[in-house]
Amino acid sequence: MNKEQALKWGDKIAIPINALLIDETNKRDSISNYWSVRNYKNFNRDGRSWFFDTFMKTIPAYIGNEAEILTEICRKAKKENIQYIETMIGVANVEDSIAVLAYLMEQNNNYNVLISGFERLYEKYELNGLDELAKEYADSLDSFISRSDTNGVTLRCQIQESRLRDDHILTFGKLMLAFKTAELTNNLVGVNFAGPEDYEVSLENYSFHMRMFQFLRAKHPNVNISIHAGELVLGKGATKDKI
After folding, report:
1. At how many degrees (to 10) do helices 27-35 and 55-62 cross?
2. Residue 181 needs a FRET pair 20 to 30 A away by CA distance; which of 52, 87, 97, 220 works?
3. How many domains does the chain have?
């Protein structure tokens, strides 16, 4: 993340990490430990939690640098003889716009619409400009890839939505955005539902989330779906939907 991006995020004292490492070489190990799972046992943390905690640390760094990061991913993939990549990448300004739209819809008491059925909420999102946001999302993804040097690697994307959100109107809106975007560009090959499956909020909303997928898949039958699974084991939790 450069200085201008840091200021945009409200961080007035940020400096480039390379400058930090040059000025304070002793920080290299601590940064590597903090940003990765290296030596995680030394800090009394389990590797799984440490892994999931890394995502929010790195998100600010890729905004505005998407093509450069995709280029680096492909460069390393080529060195390892990888020929095809599907990576999860977002479009920050559109993600912000859908969050604002969801908030405005919640202020207009659309939660009862969600409970009574997805069809009316789907129509309300369309009336409030979601199709335009999907077009912007698709154009941005195409731009990221066209500006990337893929080093001969075939590069495609998935849109990720989180199962760790209790805001059902926003979750539905982001999934709807993902399904619609997937129909607009061949560079987006699927909708990915991610996040620890055994977290409390995931368990509470599991069946409700699956009904969202069932509804949206019926609307967009040609869109591929990828759902993280396999983390539930006997004795570790069961779905207990609130809705």
Report:
1. 110
2. 52
3. 2
CB within 8 Å of 80: residues ≥ 6 apart: none
Q: How many of the other CB atoms lie within 10 Å of CB of 49?
A: 11
- The residue among 31, 63, 95 that closes a domain is 63
Q: At 104, which amino acid appears? A: L
Q: Give the DSSP H/E element, type plus range, for residue 116.
A: helix 111-116
- What DSSP character marks residue 155? E
pLDDT given at position 32: 78
Contact 186, 227 (CB under 8 A): no
Q: Is there a single domain that holds both residue 33 and residue 133?
A: no
Cβ(89)–Cβ(157) below 8 Å:
yes
Is 25 within the bounds of a domain?
Answer: yes
The domain in which residue 108 lies consists of 83-243
What is the mean predicted confidence (pLDDT) over 54-60? 73
**What pLDDT does 179 receive?**
97
Beta strands in 2-153 (DSSP E): 84-88
Do 56 and 107 lie in one domain? The reply is no
Q: What residues have CB less than 8 Å from 17, skipping those under 6 apart? A: 31
Looking at the structure, tell me whether residues 156 and 207 fall in a common domain: yes
Clarify whether residues 210 and 102 are in a common domain.
yes
Q: Round to whole Å and give the CA distance between 130 and 165.
A: 20
